Amino acid sequence: MPMKISNETKVGALTAIAITMLILGFNFLKGKTLFKTGNYLHAKYTDSKGIMVSNPVYVNGFQVGSVDDIENLDESLSTIVVTIKLKSNYNIPVNSVATIKDNPLGPASISIALGNAKQYLNVGDTLATASQDGLMGSLMNKLGPVGDQIKLTVQSLDSVLKNINTIFDPNTKNNLQQTIANINKTTASLVVSSASLQAMLNQQTGAVTQSMNHVASFTKNLSDNNEKVTRMIGNVEKTTDNLAKADIAGSVENLKATIAGLNAVVAKLNSQDGSLGKLMNDKTLYNNLTNTVRSANILLDDLRVHPKRYVNVSVFGRKDKSIPLTAPLNDSSIQK
Question: Where is the domain boundary, 137, 162, 177?
Answer without folding.
Answer: 137
